[in-house]
Amino acid sequence: MTSSSAASVPLSQMFKLPNGVQYEQPLGLFINGEFVTGKEGKAFEVVNPSTGNVVGMVHEATAADVDIAVDAAEAAFYDGPWSKMSSAERGRLLLKLADLFEENLVTLASIEAFDNGKAIQLAKGDIASCIGCLRYYGGWADKIHGKVIETSTESFNYTKQEPIGVCGQIIPWNFPLLMWAWKIGPAIACGNTVVLKTAEQTPLGGLFAASLCKQAGFPPGVINILSGFGRTAGAAIASHMKIHKVAFTGSTLVGRQIMKMAAESNLKKVTLELGGKSPNIVFEDADIDRAVEWINFGIYYNAGQCCCAGSRIYVQESIYDKVIAAFRKRAQTNVVGNPFDEATFQGAQVSETQYNRIMSYIELGKKEGATVEVGGERHGTEGYFIKPTVFSNVTEDMRIMQEEIFGPVCSIAKFKDIDDAILKGNSTTYGLASAVHTRSLTTAMEVANRLRAGTVWVNSYNTLHWALPFGGFGESGIGRELGKEALRNYTQVKTVSINLS
Amino acid sequence: MIFRRRILREARVFIYQSICYYSTVETTVRLPNGLAYRQPTGLFISNEFGASSDGKQITTYNPRSGEPITKVFVAGAADVDYAVQSAVSAYNSWRTTSGTDRGILLFSLSRLIEEYKSLLGSIEALDTGKLMDAVATEDIPDCINVTRYYAGWADKIHGNTIRPFAEKLAYTLYEPFGVCALIVPWNYPLMLAIWKMAPAIAAGNTVVLKTSELTPLSSLYLGHLITKAGFPPGVINILSGDGSTGALLASHARVNKISFTGSATTGKKILQAAANNLVPVVLELGGKSAAIVFEDADLEQAVKWCYSGVMSNAGQICSATSRILIHESIYQQFVELFKAYTIQMVKTGSLAHGPQISAEQREKVMQYVRSGIAEGARLVHGGAEIKTAGYFMQPTIFADVRDHMRIFQEEIFGPVVVMDAFATQSEAIQRANNSTYGLASAIFTKSLTLAVDTSQKLDVGTVWVNSSQDSDFRVPFGGFKMSGYGGQELGEYAVKNYLRPKAVHLNLGTSL
To answer: Which of the pair, A125 or B347, is modelled with greater confidence?
Structure first.
């Protein structure tokens, strides 16, 4: 995907999607409450991953546009209606936005299926989670409390949780709208203003959501949405001297760059949600049928494009043969294909680049000596579809066991006992999520205690919820999103100490 | 006994199903602006309006004219029982409803109150005698905001995990009580109903609300909106009635929590009734709150705040700053300014100066006025009834009021303010604290240390610095001493008050 001239690209266009949904898709950059062209007149292509075809162009933000957006966000933060707005009123705007998402659920889900390639059923689930997330943070807005702390009778001390100011947010392509909601919700609830850059692979949903922000009544400059590339717009955000916080979700590789740029510029606060290579552990006393369902869902949900995907499956040796036989069958019953088909579970990978990357890991796995149990090749002849793939006979040091593949490819291995399971589960530089399947309370508790991961699911997988904090140990990230924890990312503590003597 | 109740219930359901819309449980009420609306007069139980089982009724009056508006029922033993049983059975499924979903219903209710704000405001103004302006700017917006605020809390109730040692993982669950009885007064009928209902429901309880016998109409109308919002039947029940209804509710064996706002006399009775079943109780009672005006206060602002601090709502505010202590150097000046401001306000009518709620209440206030004169206080202004229709009286100012006088000590609950001078900060604090009450206080000063220091020394639940009565639903509200018992309302505290912690200990390795 490369930049080209924006001369012929309108600021919005009627789109008709494969399922018949017709709507006005904004194509401009959303800055200071309006959709505008980029300062350098650039635009880039939008590709439908189900076909590989270019379906349109959107305007591209470069560093110059980031500057304009930051100025608008700064002005909105210090002057104007947002700066004087009560916390309850801020919350009410988020609640209104949630209502608008609900009214436009089908359109939003359809855009998501179209731009990202995910199954429409899953996209609808994403939008329902967006609504829940925005409503949840809408409710937090006027409940952010400081403390009064006693030291001596000579002073009166209290803390305030203040907003940071202009926050930069960079989101990925795997859950475009959901990641949008996860970032906007808490940042806005805490009273900040934002400049958010969507992923270049999936700009459409974020722009439509921006039009809903305008409809909800957010003052201009509070929420700015830019389509653009990491190397230009993203880097500009991470290095900007007037942005005091950057939140990034994406690869560990890029996350490192963001943190470096943040440090080198103005030591802006950083939260990172990065990759993972999460273990999904099945004990012999698990309900095997249900466990197989969860290991299937754990890796093939969203075509494997989940930071928390359960990509390393460990099965207790006594039940290994039974599980792998069942899983082999189950993996092949996943319906792969047209996202707009209501029966589809697994859609396309998001781009050609991603498709190639995953396919090369599959080849690598074969070269490294692992066995392909199922899949291991393209699905169909059009678009970026890959068959659900399972590798067995893997060793811990294989690259397919250590590196994040980010596709419908998993490895399955045996473990002896609880200590072995923990050892294998923790043998990763990542630490985002994990799961344990067992009927025993003590096994569940012990494994949950000993796994070095930000989330431990017991007898489920990928069951995130806006009320539960989510984030990584180790190289999976810094900080937590969701739940009350997310509010910490978007506030800073001010201590006020009044001398009474 | 149970059999008979069931027959009564079934008979009632049969009756409801067989009579048409224009039944005896609704009546047409004509508002002062000429518009008419259908006012439910039945008891609201399990999302239906119905007559009481013995048919006993009371009349509610328009305090501006003294004319009757309509009759409502007095819920008796069978009705209270039916309402509580409805709440009990609703609780069984309500307790499995997620916090998010409870929140969604409360958000809907908030939106409906906003949609119906004009009608609800009119009903409230008619039944209480308040000015439409006051209701529209204070009462109804508060109802909308409070409902929305607690909708947001519903899915943010967190327990704790505690790991005392490796073999034990303990956690706390904050659980609702079950059925909560909510008993509200007549001074802010709908607003106080919402103050109690919203956090109780957000926390996962089911409720039976009893209105004041003097002001049942707005809360009964709310029943329509509760059904419209989608609350399952039995989650919220609303009964009109009198003191006997309240007593029945407070002593019902299946009520697990009681929240009451009203007089200390009745509050004590509620507490005694609850003691029998050891039911936890929250009481929001009266006050005789003091305002302290220091030498360096912004005098004009202090006068304005102190005026609305006692004269709003015809003085019928639990937290009214009805005793004003003024520094001797500005005392006479303050008294004169206050008098002038009072005369101005009454002339322009720009601040709510409505009637007292009833003839009885007005007479109680007038008795205090007479006692003030008799005990030697200086009557600066007012002191008489207004001889028109309804229950109006003049805003009344007493000066040179000493601690021993009844008008200094007792809650008058009318548009009567008492004033006196003080010499030092410690004297002001001592006199302010010289009260069996401890609901609120207001301090007027430009000095930061004086404000912080004085607020620390006042024995009250709320201190306003440079204002009076501007409560906020996000900030807890409740009294010390005889002003309150069992916890605060509003803010995060209120939700906690409708929850109780259960501790769960997981044994992960200790064997015998």
So the answer is: A125
